[in-house]
Model the fold of this input.
Amino acid sequence: MEIISFVQQSKKKSRITFPIRQKSYKSVAYAYTYPSEKHIFKAGRVNSSLTVKGAFAAIGQGLTSSGEWFVKNIKAIVISVFVIVGCIGVAGAAIFTTNYLLSHTKAITINSEEAFDIANLDKLMAAFALESSAEVDENGLIIGEDSSIDMSALSQPVEYQTYTVKSGDTISGIAIKFGLKNISTLISVNDIGNVRTLAAGQKLKIPSIDGIVYTVQKGDSLTSIASANNVKLETLLDVNELTTETLTAGQVLFLPGVGLDQKTLQSRMGELFILPISASFKWSSPYGWRADPFTGVQSFHTGTDMACPEGTPILAAMSGKIAEVGNNRTYGNYIIINHNNGYQTVYAHMSKTIAKKGQWVSQGTKIGLVGSTGYSTGPHLHFMVYKNGNRIDPMTVLKK
Done:
């Protein structure tokens, strides 16, 4: 009976108590109770896209898809790249052109006779030339004097007289005083190294006719000397009072009607210029026709260029007076020096000018620094030489 009674007794539901949390700030304990029959725990498979394996799989699949897309669209990609690069190039060219046009307010035909700045410079040089016009031409003939030769005088022996130089005398003035027509005569006969050193009190030998002296060299003959200097053999014999054609080395002859060669004359006149750059440099562009470095069009280059680092000292190629210190869009910062005998020199594209207008400078004086101002492709000196207002090739007067 006791067993039956136990079985028939109704079941009491048991409860399990889980202390989930306790809040100590009120010293009150809270507890949650859950019926035991509701807590059924099952093991199951968990699927997640964030697993490491899944991540690598996704990456691999993405790369494969990207590769397939790239292969399919390679042609379009290449074309797109070229288009982008082309656009960048066009944009860069546009920017360069815009900046260039801003720097040059109107079209410049550089190195052309019609170029505004060059034309103005030529006018300026012509004005300077009027102030210091040369007294002699490039062959030593005195300007304004009759250059014809008295042939009868060439059959007479040359005679000499002595003249004492006075204050204010010039070599051409002395020549005119004695009826000579070429300053080469006095320079050669008196072995004058530089006419600028002519001083009051100096004694000069004055020949009766124009000509130069020649010292016979070993192997010379009277015939070869006459032929080389375009003088008749008979004239050479008469002027030097020679009774025989036999010569000896060291013998001095007078060559009537002959002048010094231009290079020797320039040197004796003090007309040879030193290089305006004493530091290391490169001859980058000569005087004359060339392709313009910007446009490629054939144009006349008015001077000679010496490329060297910015800041390199620029020297006065010859003594003279600073006639102009200026700036223009073609030559940038420039200096003009007025020299004797109708010469002017121009130094262009300077980064800095040092000499001042009106200042007298000696040959070799620092007048400025090399730069790239004006119409220039890089740091260099643009060196120009004018003779009586006309441009000449600087290489014809530079000491080498």
